[in-house]
Structure formats: structure tokens, C-alpha cells
Amino acid sequence: MAHPGDVSALAGLLGSGALDAGAIRAVIGKTEGNGGLNDFTRGYFTQSLLHLLSRAAGREAEALAARIPCVLSGGTEGVLSPHYMVFAAEPAEGGGGLAIGTAFGPPVAPGDVGNDAQIARVAAATRAAMADAGIEDPAQVALVQVKSPAGGPGLLLRSVAGGAMGAALALGDVPAKAAREAALLDDFSLFSPRVSASAGVEVMQDEVIVLGTAPGWVPGLSIAVRPMTDALDLAAIQSAFRGAGLSADPDVPPGQRSRIRAILAKGEPDRSLHVRGQRHTMLGDTDLDAQRHLRAALGAVIASVAGDGRVFVSGGAAHQGPPGGGLVAVIAESA
Amino acid sequence: MAHPGDVSALAGLLGSGALDAGAIRAVIGKTEGNGGLNDFTRGYFTQSLLHLLSRAAGREAEALAARIPCVLSGGTEGVLSPHYMVFAAEPAEGGGGLAIGTAFGPPVAPGDVGNDAQIARVAAATRAAMADAGIEDPAQVALVQVKSPAGGPGLLLRSVAGGAMGAALALGDVPAKAAREAALLDDFSLFSPRVSASAGVEVMQDEVIVLGTAPGWVPGLSIAVRPMTDALDLAAIQSAFRGAGLSADPDVPPGQRSRIRAILAKGEPDRSLHVRGQRHTMLGDTDLDAQRHLRAALGAVIASVAGDGRVFVSGGAAHQGPPGGGLVAVIAESA
Amino acid sequence: MAHPGDVSALAGLLGSGALDAGAIRAVIGKTEGNGGLNDFTRGYFTQSLLHLLSRAAGREAEALAARIPCVLSGGTEGVLSPHYMVFAAEPAEGGGGLAIGTAFGPPVAPGDVGNDAQIARVAAATRAAMADAGIEDPAQVALVQVKSPAGGPGLLLRSVAGGAMGAALALGDVPAKAAREAALLDDFSLFSPRVSASAGVEVMQDEVIVLGTAPGWVPGLSIAVRPMTDALDLAAIQSAFRGAGLSADPDVPPGQRSRIRAILAKGEPDRSLHVRGQRHTMLGDTDLDAQRHLRAALGAVIASVAGDGRVFVSGGAAHQGPPGGGLVAVIAESA
Amino acid sequence: MAHPGDVSALAGLLGSGALDAGAIRAVIGKTEGNGGLNDFTRGYFTQSLLHLLSRAAGREAEALAARIPCVLSGGTEGVLSPHYMVFAAEPAEGGGGLAIGTAFGPPVAPGDVGNDAQIARVAAATRAAMADAGIEDPAQVALVQVKSPAGGPGLLLRSVAGGAMGAALALGDVPAKAAREAALLDDFSLFSPRVSASAGVEVMQDEVIVLGTAPGWVPGLSIAVRPMTDALDLAAIQSAFRGAGLSADPDVPPGQRSRIRAILAKGEPDRSLHVRGQRHTMLGDTDLDAQRHLRAALGAVIASVAGDGRVFVSGGAAHQGPPGGGLVAVIAESA
Lengths: 335, 335, 335, 335
Fold this sequence. Notes:
The structure is a homotetramer of 335-residue chains.
Chain A: H1 8-16, E1 24-31, H2 41-57, H3 61-65, E2 70-74, E3 83-88, E4 98-107, H4 116-133, E5 141-149, H5 156-171, E6 195-200, E7 205-213, E8 221-228, H6 234-243, E9 260-266, E10 274-275, E11 278-279, H7 290-306, E12 312-314, E13 326-333
Parallel strand pairs in A: 1-2, 5-6, 9-12
Antiparallel strand pairs in A: 1-3, 4-7, 5-7, 8-13, 9-13, 10-11
């Protein structure tokens, strides 16, 4: 991926017939913008992707955008490498492979995020995505990826929090009574350890991707998700890789690295202004956004275990994993 | 350390008599600036430190500045935590402890860095610091820390390179024929795996600190230094901690963390624009300096092993460890 | 001023006897930091200044700090030039010159800003500074400069607003009923066109400087203050220079420039996200702080009239001049 | 223009028939990126524009891109407003109106900029664009706008310089003997006061737009171009507006503002590190790119005269106007 509009690798797969455009269920990617309100690399990639798929599938870009969640996170600080992951799957007879389901919410009015309405919308979309995947029991959900509209200046982190709470509600990880607007960015004890949420100015409706286990999907891929207690939680990161069937002693050995299919993580500059008792400076830097700090740091720790900079790490982890921490998910091909 | 002018912790030690100002040999610290040309947190800290020591020792600040190297690196990106390390030691009868020696070069004319003159100056200062430590054999040197004047706009990285080459020359890690101006920032195969160099606008002469093994120093501290092949070299980092007598499985266990006395590292945004084959974006970001990217990333990987954000990590690692990599040093109290 | 710790120009004046340290009433300066929470250039300058004055006056730095307001604003974006202005004055017989008065409020507890308490504290300090200047009638006040503690993360702009409201209350420019906490950063129709406020982490109590007209001050200096309707208000800027007795057609001619003694301005990124109907991007830039944008822009417009980059321009102009605009003050020597 | 991919205003004009896609000769725009190597807002806009024109004109986007120069400059710091200017014109019988001509150079190999080859390529393209406009005498050229490939890391400013030198050579503003690679970014006494050059990663070949006077173009538009001696040259800016038939006392009065059709400027952070004898900090700021500083400052001065933030101001003015200064061009509708 040479730049945010570069979809040539996917074009190659579609052109050669190695991949059928119709099988694409979702795209998750990391582009090299600043990850904030004025990060237009996400919109640029999305436009490029939809033009490509539109030509390949012979359908209008708008129709594809309404069917394929395209979750972009900007910011490839430090050793992180711009990349995108294409989730393509067809249900299969029999069983027990990695299931994927997607859903879209209704169009969102400007500013209508970070509130009870968003929580309800995202919860409904999460349930719809579970149904789409064929997952009935929330316990079978490994990871929910949510993307919501940014809402406008000052609302971005509220929107992330609202999206997270909505999915947590649908999974039963946060009780319905507690999953309220008033708790957003306030009661950080409320969280799901398997929800990853983000928000962007280029998004007009809530988009949800559910990954988990269900009958009727081709086997061969494993997913493991682990909560991290803070941005230094090396043991949790290793555990996620091991949970997905890889070694991590301390890192994934070169011979196994090609089996890594996706690494997704959420993290957060600790609001206590300290990590393990030592003062950090992420939240008071006028020149460098706190989330850029965080992505560079957490992304590098994960990449040092993976041996690969293609890590989808996204800041703004409120209600996604323990406060000050977050979560990490690894999808790997079975040995 | 609440801010770059906060030397209250040291003031406490001096006030209580726990530390004698006269025993202070060197100070190495990490302040929360941007680490670049317009990072004045280094000068602010140095001024604050010298005022404190001046009052405590009853000597002029200028005289202290000419005797005590004060090596500051700006930039506490990500999980890094502002801190300073005070090296205080008195020679002791008998043997084999961690030795420290220091030396200053002559005043440097503006712009007189990144050239053969600087290489010669720093080599001479390195030899003087070895002598000050009582180290005769370069093989007994564990780490040389160099700080040189920044030289002016556009010269900062050249000055770092020149300082590194000078120390490498003195150690015999780079042959005299090769340690020339023309090789600076050009032939990256020339390096020492035990030299850490930096440069700053607040520095007016080359300053060198040598750490190693020599008779006549109080035992009780161990140092281990390891080269890193790239910014993801988790195994090398663990090895340095283990070399200093600590566990690292994967991280230093909480019960051992108080034995960590200092962690120093150098790293570099890989000039190939790739880390392990994947494109990074550190060197083409107009908004975020490449060294800030690097410190955030490498610092976090080291901190994740240490379990502590107080890591002195400094960018600009030309001729300090392998190209694209760097080195890491750990000083720990013996068990 | 070569760097934020450089007070050599003032040292020269004190050393030669051209200026008596005891005559110094206040210092206002612009240092080359980022102007935000982690801008330590202000503290560095203040420490350097106090050490100098302490030696010159033979008094403790702490005692001087409690008597001489030292108002620093970080950020010399664009053509702005780091500089500081020393206000030294002795009352004289007779009269009608430029009067100066100063006052300090009580120590402020962390976070105790942006509220009714701060408004009351600053109003009281403003009245005390007026009394110190010998000004009884608020109509004789030309400009009030306020500096308050930053309060902590997220509070900086609230503190600026609270300081402005307090001074506006004392001047009668905002009625007592309206000058309330609830109006801060909310009702921008409440403002004084002659109050300039700022806040900083290095400040521990409110500091106020009043400039105006009163009997008993040496004549020879004029001050003119003008509200600006927006950051493009070239006519208002020219009017301020003319009001202080200078030409401005379109700029101050070279022969008059040495008569400029001080230029102070406040401005604000327009909260409507537009300037004169066109969208600006200052308030949604993740990489570049809105106030840095604003200072670069407004500072350049003023400097283009002055023909000089030594303009004290400070962002965060809530309640200081019209919404979206601000104010500009010029002090000049009489012809 | 709500974001860099927003071409809805142009879509409206094309849809209503107010503008014929076939009449479009060139597009010059200012997008809200950082203006540097990793500014992808230019590519995003260009992609969006070409998709729109492709649909409107029923032609392939690639064919349009090879015919219509699309010169984008990133960076709308301060009061600058994102906007684009569409140059649409048909030759007419008679008349000395504003002429436009365009030309493209051959594809450029990576890194093949900032050298004699680029100078020759751009000179040839400039002559071709003059011919396209029907301008024979270089004296009839008012402004040449050049865009070249960025060339890669570290080459961007060299590419800008090479583009400027090539056009200056074609105009005879720099003699052929002097217009050499060795002079680029070195001999700043060589310049044209009517060439505006830029470079971008999204550009694959040199693109040139020539504006001037020639028979056979519809009258009604005036252009005036003025050199600026530095970033504070308010008088030169006013002169450009007056030269285009507008008042500027000090600014363009509201009733005339709708006659402004385009404002283009180039400027430069003064390499002497001073503006009018006062130190600026643009060239030593690790957190804020020098060109971002410059655009914010110079753009605001020009906007304060125009009364409008839609100013195309671009940094990197080497060989475009006097050293430390630049040039400003205004196109206005006749009264």
C-alpha cells in the first residue's frame, strides 16, 4: 500500500480471479493520516476502494458502500505500516469456522452520537450483524468492530464511546441499566473486552462487523482476543498470539509470520496521567495528539511480538477493555 | 519530575544528606520537549539542576557545569516518563564495580561539528573519560555516552553522527582509517554497539561519560549493553535485562523492578523506509518528526519489558548499533 | 533574545546602569514555545529573569516574583519574533503620563479557575492594580493584562475566560449580574474591549497589570487600544497605530518604527468555523493547535502594519473583544 | 468545499449547464492538508475532480488528467479557506482578454527532479503553454504556474526550485547560462517575479499553466502580479489588488469583493532567520513545518487586504520573487 488511494494489491487479486468481488464482506484498514477529525486518508481510501469494487462488481459504488462495512483507522505512527484487511467469506456446509456478519444502522443526523440514541442504534446493528453471521449466543462472539460517524468537532471520542457501549450492550457485557449516555466517558468500569470502536468524519451511519464462531463457515482460521491492563501489557499480547495458535517466545518466529491474517487492538492514554505509577505526557501535549502518542507506543509493543508492523491499532478505547488498557485480537491461519 | 524545571526529588536527597553533592559525577535525563532544535526543556532542566547543585555545593554553577556532564534528551513520547538519573560514585578500595569516568572537550565554534575535528575531539574526550574511570582496556568499556553541540539548523544529526564516530574510534570499534567525516551519515556499516550519542542547542562543548569495569569502584551494580537489529528487536531487549541480572519473561517481574537503575537506548527510523519488509511512514511525516515517531515506538517496546516508562531512549542512532537498529543498555542493582 | 533563557539584553541594561532593577514594574514577553499546556519556555524565561533580577537587586527571586508580574505567552508562529517588554516606571510630579499598576491575587488551588471564585479574585486584583496605578475612574484604564494559573488539563481556556471576565467586571464593561461562571465560554456577547487575559502552568496566582492614564506619571508614551471584529480587521489595526501617534499608510514608516514600544493583541479562531463567510480549518486540525494557527495569522497581519515581528499576540480571546475578533493595543513614544 | 473530496459546487455548475465541462482548461486549488510529503488531500481532490469531470464529459479520467492541469497546494493554515478555482475559457474573436495556455511534460522517473533535466523539461512545457495561449512575446506573460513531481523524500523543495527555474528560463527572466542545477536553492538572486511553482507526490509529470495577454480571448478579466520583498510587504499586496482594478484602502471594500476571481501567492520563510532584522522561528521548529508557519502568516496578510480567506498561498518560493519574499497575483473581474 504505497499511499491511501493505493488499492492496486486488491485490484491484482480481483483481476487475476484469485478473489471474487462478490465474496467481500468487510474491509478494515489503517491509513497514514493523523487519525483525527481532519484525517482525510480514510475517505480517500474508501473512495478508491469503492471505485475499484464498483468496476469489478459492475455495481454502483453507493450500493456497495451500503453493503460492505469499510472501517478505516488513520494513524500509522512509529513502526506501524499502512495496510488493509479484506474479509471475504462464503458460508460453507458444516463447520465451526470463523464466522463474519455485518450490519449497517440508519443514516445519522449530524451530532446525533454519544447519546442513548447511538447506543440503541449500535446495539441493534450488532444484533443484526450477529444474525448475519449465524451467531445466536453472544458467548460465541469473539470481536465486534464498530464504526460510527464522528459527529462533529468535540464529539469524536463521545461517538467512539457510544459505539462501544452499544455493542457491549448487545453482547450483554454491560447491563442494559448501565449502558446509558450518562456513563459515556464517565464510568470506565463499564466495558466489553471484545468490542473495538472508532469514528470518522467520512462515516454517515453506524457500521458493525461481528467475528465469532458459528456453524456453516469454512474452517481454517482462529481468532483470539485478550484484554490488556495497560499499554505495556506484553504478556496479554503474547497470550493473544498464542491463543490464535502461534508461538510468541518472545515473538512470532519468522516461519509462522505468514500465518498472521489480522491484528487489531484498541488502547488508551491512561487518564490517570500515569502508567504503572510513572507520569506520562500523552494527554498534555499541544503539538502531538494523545492518540498519536498512544498508537505509536502500543502499536510498537504489539508489532514487536508479531514481528510485523501491520497492526490495526486504534486509540480511544473507552469502554473497550479495562480503563487505561484495551484489547488485542489476533486472527491466524491454522498450522 | 513534574516538569522540566523540577529538581525537587534531588533537592530532597541533598537536603536530607542522603546524597553528597560532591559525589555527583554525571546526570542523564529525559525531558518532555520535542527533542529537536527548539526543545528548550533540556536547557531549562540544566539551569535548574545547576542552580540546585550550586547552592548545595556552594560553588558557582559555571564551575559545576564544567565538571559534571549533564546529558539531556528531549522527548517522552508515548509511555515514556520524564526522569533523570544521577550518577554519584566514589572510588573504593578493591574491586571490580561499575566504573564511571567523565570528560569535557574544548569549547566548540558554531558549526564545527559533523566533521573530522569533532571526531578527533570526541575521541580524545572519550580516552580522557576512560582514564578518569581508571579503564585502560577499551574492552572493559560497557557504554560511552556522548553529547555534542547541535551545531545549528540542519547539523543536528551530523553532530550526533560525529560524536558517535569519535567515541567509536577511541574504542577501536571503527578503525582510524574509516572514522572520517566522509563516512558520517553515509557508511552505516561503521558503528559501535556501545556508543550512545546525542546533540543539543544548549551544549557548548563535547561531553563524554564512560561506564565500564575497573578496579577500585564499589561493587553492587551491573550493566549490560546489547545491539538491536531493528526497532522490534524484543529478544535483544530481554537479553539486556537478563544480562544485568534481571528476569524478563516476558517482562521484569514487579518484585525486581526497583532494582532497575537506568535504561538507555538509541534507535533510528530505518532509512530503507521499511521495517522487516513493511513500509513505515516515520521519515515522510510533515507534522510529526521522525525521531518523535521512533522514540514513541522503541521506547514503548523497551518499557513493556521493563514494566516502567523511565527509559532514556534517544533517536539519531547513526553509527550506534546496526543500521536501522541501535542499542539498549540496562544498569541494575545486584540481587 | 536568542532563546527562552536569554535575558542578556536586560542584563546589559542593568549592568550599564541604564536601567535600575528597582524601577521594574512588570515584564510581558513572548517566547518560542507552543503556547499550550506543555510549553515550558515561559517557566524557563521566568526563572532566568528572576535569577537575573535577584542578582541585580540583591533580593530573593521569590520576593521579586511576588512583586513583579511576569506575563509570558508562548508561541511565535510565522513572522512573530520572541521578545520581552520591561515596564519600568517611577511616579513623577505632575502629569498625565502612561500609568502602570500591578497586583497579585492569593495562591490558587489546583483546578480553582474558570469559576465564580476566579472571577471575584481577578476583579479584586484588577481594582488593586488600578489603585496601585492611581487610577480611580475605570474610564481611564486603557488595558488590563491578566495572567492566571492554567488549572490543569482541559481548563486552560476556561481559566483565560475567567480571568477576562474578572477584569471586565472590575472595569464595569460587563455587569455584575452577567459576570458569572455560567457565562464563561458560553455567552460571548459579554466582553471587554480592553482586557487581555492568558493562563499558564507556571503561574500559581492571578497576576494583573493595569495600564491607563493618571496624574503623577512621566509623560512621553501613548497607548491606544482597539477592538477587532475578526482576524482580518486591518482597519482596526491601523487605527490602533494611528491612535498611538504613528502613521500607518499602509504600514508604519521605517523612520517611526523605533518609537513603537509595545504591541499587544488577543484573537480567537472564530467559533462559527468561518471568517467572513469562508470556512477556516483552525478548530479541527489534529496536528496543529488552533491557537497556533491563530497567532500565526493574526500576528502577521499586525506585524505587516508595524513592520516588525515583535508582536505580543495571544490566542484564547473569549470575552476580550468581539466574538471571533479580539483587540489590539499599541504603546508608542510620542514624536 | 466541505472537505478535500467535495466537488459538489462544480457538480452543480456542470449539472445546471452553467458550465461546460469541455471548456475547463485548468484547476488550481488549496486543500486542507499539511502541504508536505504526506499530504494526500491533493490526491483525494484530484481523484474526486476527475471522477466528476469524467462522468460529465463522458471521457476517461486518465484522458482528462492528461489534458487539464490540476495544481493543488495543501495547507490552509490560519484564516485560509479551502477552495478551488476552475479556469474555463474559450478563445473569442478579437480582443485582448486574459489568455490561458497549458502544457504537460513527459512522464518523470522517480527522483528526476531538481536537476538540469527538470529545468529543460519545464522550460519546454512553459513555451508550449505560451503557444497554447497564443502568447508569442514573453513580456505578455503575467504568471506561470508550475507543478512538478515531488521526487521523493528530501527532494520536494528541490523540485519546486527546478520547476521555477525552468519557467524563469523560458520567460527570459533568468539567463540560460545561469539557469542550471548548481544554482537551485543556492543562488537566490536568480528569480522570476512571475513564476509560481510547487510539487506534489501525486504528480507524475510537469504541468504548466500560463496566464497573460493575447489576442483572441474574451475580455473582462484583469490580472496583476507583484513581487513582495518579504512576508510583511503590505504595500505590494495592496498594489496587486489595485493593479487588478480593485480598491485597497486598506482592504477591498465589501461591494467589490465578489469581483475577485483568484488570488495566488508564493512566499518563503526567510533563510536569514530574520524578517526586517527580527529573529523568526519558522525554520527551527521541530513540531511545526516551516511552510505551514509561512502560509499561515503570509496568507493572513493577503487575506486581510482581500477581505477573504480564499487565497492560494504556497510556500517554497525559491527563485520565485526576491529572496525572503515572493510574489502575489490577483485576477479580478473588470468593474
